[in-house]
């Protein structure tokens, strides 16, 4: 049979027919992670058609008509295997002669051995028939259906083509070179198809990007003022996640992939094999990202997103990044070295390119987030991303041991150096942004200069905002301390109080007016700049609240306001071990002392005039009680107490303990003094209407009325009576 002449070693980056190219296109090998194009070349279709025709003729001639014919066919198949084994032995003998000649110093000067053309022809024809059988779908190629040891046979053809190339100028080798080269090309096309089909079998298992995702655990709020936490995907340990990290491919599939890769590399078709592997695994990885809900966003998309939408995207990115670094890259590393076992340089190169593409792809989102407008609510998500990047470095470093670097010499992988540099660069921008956002809390406090006092002296919204913000922020205490140490700029030691711009860190050497400039906390605390910044914020809040207390005309209410807000601050600090540790015991003692002083000021402003009614001075003249003075004292007390009750029952003390302390302290001072006063002087009033007119409250009634103060619900004594 006439055959098209195919030059030996004529290779292309792909060797598939148009049908196979359509199949590959269906899998979409062009990726956002870095597309790789597989160039194609056409198979010699005339050869293929002739082979099919020959098989049809042989099948028609050999078709058994009865059971005897079937038995004969089975015996013939067994004989064919035996003949193929004999052919293999002859090919091995022939190759042994060739390779012994290649071992001599000048093989081209040696007399080439005579080539057993019939053996070569029969051998490559048998291999080609076997390949066509599997390609036609008559049988599926597997270890159970490989009577001729196809990979070993293909390896012989590869060695045969390599051997005769040594004597390529000999005319007698022309047909053998063409025939063996054509079948080898066909075999490589078949193996590439099989390799790609095996790689697609991970659809029956988890995509690599979906490996290792443990259930999220609530640790911190995803943003200020929210309670859910959907972005905490804990990196699984080997012990706790043994079932999650099961390989995507069964061991037998990995072994077949390894065998095919070894055959293609031995035949010098390693480039094509690596391209197919890389594209298939990148497609699988991207499919895994989509399966967990992660979609690529451009910088423009991120910059245009509303915060609510971007917050969700950040949460998904954190989950995806932790999974990718903590599980997926490790799996891909192991898979590369399993499939390309014995070819460490190839495995490392494939994995390095894969890891670089994945990490750079994911870092692009962080770059975009770092470019968005800064705002207070973004701090916690920025810190979450910062932590994810920081925690990823040890795991990434573990994936790039120096021995795997193709540069050799135990030097650090250039890929690792590049990724570390990229991660640290992006992390630095996040750190600088976090510092700026937290420092802008000062600006928020300074700009809150409202002139309307809070009704009832209640806790001011600014106090709640700042303290809750600090409470959540200090859950990131260790990270914020690290961020301030690494990314806080020493030049930002001062800021102008009168310009309202906390981003202006310039210093004027000509301005010596210290009253217009404030020493910033971080500069004052070089060992822990975050603690210094926190103290600065607390001092600013204290000063702001002190100014707001002066908006109340009633000094007693002013002190209630300071007590309410001071108590709220102290309770928040006591409830946060992190803030307490940062501010220190002396700061806490000072605020507790302030609270006691506010309490004393309130008592003095409200009840000192009431207690003055119970003094003996002026009531007795030469041992005689002056009834008009007694009556006036009682009238004054009644009026003052009614007014205090009417006014201060509308005041608000939301902290139950503080409310109780205030009522108890008032009762402890007023009720005994009133009881004693009545005990000494009530008998000087005429019983009946006169007593009812001037003694409106019994001591127990007085105590009950005091227990109605600070409820924020004004009540009328007249209505109650």
UniProtKB/TrEMBL annotation:
Compositional bias annotation for Basic and acidic residues: 19-29, 39-54
Pfam families per the UniProt record, alphabetical = Exo70_C, Exo70_N
* Entries under InterPro entries matching the protein: Cullin_repeat-like_dom_sf, Exo70, Exo70_C
What range(s) does the Exocyst complex subunit Exo70 C-terminal domain occupy? Answer: 316-708
What terms describe the molecular function in GO for this protein? phosphatidylinositol-4,5-bisphosphate binding
> Residue ranges under compositional bias (Low complexity)?
502-515
Composition bias (Acidic residues) maps to 55-67
One Gene Ontology cellular component annotation held by this UniProt entry: exocyst
Keywords on record: Exocytosis, Protein transport, Transport
Its Gene Ontology biological processes?
A: exocytosis; protein transport
Q: Where is this region: Disordered?
A: 1-67, 493-526
Bias type Polar residues, positions: 1-11
According to its UniProt record, which protein family does this protein belong to? Belongs to the EXO70 family.
Function as written in the Swiss-Prot or TrEMBL entry: Component of the exocyst complex.
What is the official name of this protein in its record? Answer: Exocyst subunit Exo70 family protein
Q: Which organism is it from?
A: Ananas comosus (Pineapple)
């Amino acid at each position: 049979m006439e055959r098209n002449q195919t030059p030996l070693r004529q290779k292309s980056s792909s060797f598939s027919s148009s049908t196979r190219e359509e199949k590959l296109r269906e899998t979409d090998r062009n990726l956002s992670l870095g597309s790789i194009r597989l160039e194609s070349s056409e198979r010699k279709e005339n050869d293929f058609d002739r082979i099919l025709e020959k098989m049809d003729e042989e099948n028609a001639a050999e078709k058994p008509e009865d059971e005897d014919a079937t038995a004969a066919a089975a015996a013939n198949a067994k004989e064919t295997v035996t003949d193929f084994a004999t052919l293999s032995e002859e090919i091995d003998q022939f190759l042994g002669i060739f390779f012994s000649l290649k071992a001599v110093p000048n093989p081209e000067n040696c007399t080439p051995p005579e080539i057993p053309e019939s053996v070569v022809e029969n051998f490559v024809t048998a291999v080609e028939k076997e390949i066509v059988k599997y390609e036609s779908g008559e049988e599926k190629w597997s270890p159970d259906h490989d009577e001729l040891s196809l990979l070993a046979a293909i390896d012989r053809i590869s060695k045969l083509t390599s051997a005769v190339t040594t004597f390529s100028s000999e005319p007698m080798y022309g047909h053998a070179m063409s025939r063996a080269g054509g079948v080898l090309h066909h075999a490589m096309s078949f193996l590439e198809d099989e390799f790609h089909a095996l790689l697609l079998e991970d659809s029956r298992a988890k995509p690599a990007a979906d490996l290792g995702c443990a259930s999220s655990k609530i640790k911190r709020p995803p943003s200020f003022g929210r309670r859910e936490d959907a972005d905490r995907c804990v990196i699984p340990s080997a012990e706790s996640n043994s079932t999650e990290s099961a390989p995507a491919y069964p061991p037998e599939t990995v072994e077949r992939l390894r065998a095919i890769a070894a055959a293609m590399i031995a035949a010098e078709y390693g480039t094509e094999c690596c391209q197919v592997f890389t594209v298939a695994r990148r497609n699988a990885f991207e499919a895994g990202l989509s399966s967990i809900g992660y979609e690529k966003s451009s910088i423009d998309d991120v910059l245009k997103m509303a915060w609510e939408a971007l917050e969700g995207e950040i949460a998904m990115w954190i989950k995806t990044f932790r999974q990718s670094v903590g599980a997926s890259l490790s799996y891909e590393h192991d898979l590369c070295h399993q499939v390309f076992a014995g070819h460490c340089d190839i495995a490392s190169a494939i994995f390095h390119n894969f890891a670089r593409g994945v990490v750079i792809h994911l870092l692009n989102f962080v770059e975009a987030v770092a470019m968005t407008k800064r705002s207070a609510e973004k701090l916690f998500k920025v810190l979450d991303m910062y932590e994810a990047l920081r925690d990823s470095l040890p795991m990434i470093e573990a994936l790039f041991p120096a021995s795997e670097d193709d540069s050799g010499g135990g030097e650090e992988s250039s890929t690792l150096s590049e990724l570390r540099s990229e991660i640290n660069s992006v992390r630095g921008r996040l750190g600088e942004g976090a510092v700026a956002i937290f420092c802008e809390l000062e600006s928020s406090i300074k700009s809150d200069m409202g002139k309307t006092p809070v009704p009832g002296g209640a806790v001011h919204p600014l106090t709640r905002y700042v303290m809750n913000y600090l409470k959540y922020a200090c859950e990131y205490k260790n990270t914020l301390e690290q961020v301030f140490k690494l990314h806080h700029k020493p030049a930002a030691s001062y800021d102008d109080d009168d310009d309202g711009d906390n981003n202006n860190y310039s210093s004027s050497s000509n301005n010596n007016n210290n009253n217009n400039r404030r020493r910033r906390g971080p500069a004052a605390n070089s060992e822990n700049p975050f603690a210094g910044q926190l103290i600065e914020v607390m001092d600013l809040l204290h000063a702001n609240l002190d100014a707001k207390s002066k908006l109340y005309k009633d000094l007693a209410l002013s002190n209630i306001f300071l007590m309410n807000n001071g108590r709220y601050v102290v309770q928040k600090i006591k409830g946060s071990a992190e803030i307490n540790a940062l501010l220190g015991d002396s700061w806490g003692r000072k605020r507790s002392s302030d609270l006691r002083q506010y309490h004393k000021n309130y008592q003095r402003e409200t009840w000192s005039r009431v207690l003055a009614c119970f003094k003996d001075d002026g009531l007795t003249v030469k041992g005689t009680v002056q009834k008009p003075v007694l009556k006036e004292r009682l009238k004054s007390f009644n009026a003052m107490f009614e007014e205090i009750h009417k006014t201060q029952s509308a005041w608000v003390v939301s902290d139950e303990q503080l409310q109780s302390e205030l009522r108890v302290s008032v009762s402890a001072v007023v009720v005994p003094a009133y009881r004693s006063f009545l005990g000494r002087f009530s008998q000087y009033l005429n019983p009946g209407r006169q007593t009812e007119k001037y003694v409106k409250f019994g001591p127990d009634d007085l105590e009950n009325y005091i227990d109605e103060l600070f409820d924020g619900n004004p009540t009328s004594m007249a209505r109650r009576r």
